[in-house]
Amino acid sequence: MFDWYYAWLEAWPWLHYVIAAMTVLIFLMLRKLVTRFIFVVIKKISKHGKSLFLGNFLYAFEKPMRMLVVVFGVYFAILYLSPQPDIMVVVNRLLRTLLIVFFGWGFFNFSGTSSDLFTRLGRKVDGDRDSMLIPFTSKILRGLVIVLMFTVIAMEWDYDINGFIAGLGLGGLAFALAAQDTIANFFGGIILVTEKPFKRGDWIETTTVEGIVEDISFRSTKVRTFAEGLVTTPNSTMANDAITNWSEMRKRQVFSSIYLKYNSPVESVRNVLERVDKELRESPDVVDQEEIEIYVREFEEYGMEMLVYYFTNATPWTEWLKVKEYFNMRILEILKEENVEIAIPMPDLYKHRDPS
Question: Of 191, 210, 263, 276, which is most buried, counting CB atoms within 10 Å of its CB?
């Protein structure tokens, strides 16, 4: 039935290579269609289930699967050309190696911070999507995937990894001595992740840095200062330092001192204190009524010190400034209405006129 086909091949041997090339081209064109069909089926199956875990897991293998379709096209094209057995041994090893790489690639994608695995982990363990536990654990798992992938590839190509492992044991002490700081930083990172003194996006302050936490890696923690500088602090230093997490404030303090002139009428000063106190107690932006303190506290060189002390609901910087500004303006209005002037730190000059 195919006598004409074999006759052509005998007449033009180069047709073998054309057919092999066309085979690769067909697989190359079908790679998106095949993967799209597979994932449409997977998406329908996962929708009927109670969990999207399977769908998310397989979607991590979408790009590796596309490449795998092309690899199989090349493999079938080589099989069609019927190479020598020793060549096929190498080809089969290459195929198995690429399969290992594609599986490693898929698991590497799945262990990313945006995968369903870490979404569930963050929800159950930490309850916070901005926790440093998720990216830190993701980096550890991705590192393990890469190490395991290269180990299996080495075994596939008959490399003796036992000698390598034994060498690690013999050189372990020297490595530990040479990498003390690295090991200390690694365990410092684990302490920061497990104790959770802060999370990504928190405003923290230590003895060495103050700013917004951006990331934590195996070695260091990156903090963006308010001057837009990026400070990288070793995890061991951060773990052993006192950390103030200002983002965990439940309320924010306002502490002000206003100096009033000594020639201000006493009754007017009392009215100012009472009106400011009433203003603060009636405001929904102020918390802890018992913490409101409005007093003439000290007699200083240039005037009477009026203490203004209270806490606001607003803890973010901009919102806190707006509340503070509002009450500062109200205090100025009250002082003006009561004819009480603010003392300026400069000496008053009094001229004595002699009647004669």
Answer: 276
Q: In Å, what is the CA distance from 124 to each residue of 130, 135, 137?
A: 13, 15, 14
Maximum pairwise Cα distance, the chain: 144
Q: What percent of the chain has pLDDT over 70?
A: 71
Question: pLDDT (tens digit, 9 = 90+) per residue, 258-300?
Answer: 999 999 999 999 999 999 999 999 999 999 888 999 999 999 8
Whether 175 has a pLDDT exceeding 60, the answer reads no
Whether the full predicted model's pTM is greater than 0.70, yes or no, is no
DSSP assignment, residue 342?
B
Asked if 132 contacts 189 with a C-beta cutoff of 8 angstroms, the reply is: no
Q: Are 189 and 197 in contact (CB under 8 A)?
A: no
Q: What is the pLDDT of residue 4?
A: 47
Tokens 């109200």 found at: 330
**Among 104, 108, 72, which Cα is nearest to 91's?**
72
3-state secondary structure 109-168: HHCCCCCHHHHHHHHHHHCCCCCCHHHHHHHHHHHHHHHHHHHHHHHHCCCCHHHHHHHH
DSSP 8-class letter at 343: P
Find, among 171, 91, 106, the residue nearest to 142 by Cα.
106
Give the CA distances from residue 80 to residues 19, 21, 136, 242, 347, in Å, rounded to whole numbers and listed in that order.
9, 10, 48, 69, 103
For 148-173, b/e burial (b = at least 16 CB within 10 A) is ebeebbeeeeeeeeeeeeeeeeeeee
Across the strands, what pairs with 307?
Answer: 257, 295
Q: What is the mean pLDDT of residues 67-77?
A: 79
- Cβ–Cβ under 8 Å, residues 23 and 76: yes
